[in-house]
What we know:
Layout: H1 10-16, H2 22-31, H3 44-58, E1 61-62, E2 67-68, E3 81-82, E4 87-88, E5 93-94, E6 99-100, E7 105-106, E8 111-112, E9 138-139, E10 144-145, E11 150-151, E12 156-157, E13 162-163, E14 168-169, E15 177-181, E16 184-189
Parallel strand pairs: 1-3, 2-4, 3-6, 5-8, 6-9, 7-10, 8-11, 9-12, 10-13, 11-14, 13-15
Antiparallel strand pairs: 15-16
Helix pairs in contact: 2-3
Amino acid sequence: xxxxxxxxxxxxxxxxxxxxxxxxxxxxxxxxxxxxxxxxxxxxxxxxxxxxxxxxxxxxxxxxxxxxxxxxxxxxxxxxxxxxxxxxxxxxxxxxxxxxxxxxxxxxxxxxxxxxxxxxxxxxxxxxxxxxxxxxxxxxxxxxxxxxxxxxxxxxxxxxxxxxxxxxxxxxxxxxxxxxxxxxxxxxxxxxxxxx
Length: 196
């Protein structure tokens, strides 16, 4: 049985995601705003304001005082939600269907990937096998995600958690957990010994 090879192009994305006028803001963001400097370089305040202005028109919802670093990639951004005072550092790669809470800090080059590929068949190349349904990533409030972390499809990171730099997160992270490694494992709990 042949598998239909999924071919994507700009026009099919525009139609499938019903982007409409958002397509204009995608063009401004990816064509200009993403290349402008980040703090502390000169012009970074204006550049950050332009990135924020574009993303507010691209995302499903965006809280107040969100910071978006240079080179951050969001696909079409149409299903991204991000809460107040959260930040994307430089060169972040965030899947289009990610939900991020309030007060979330991310280091440089964090990747959140909600898509994957089928690979079960051996008679045809993997690129021709299509993709399973996307599994969104959900990040709670008050989370710190260190530099160069990779968070895989369907992962939920509980509120008040810390993900150590360079970690590859393949499973859900409990609230208040500090995780690290490849694959990421719980190192300790931030609320150990806390009297309630």
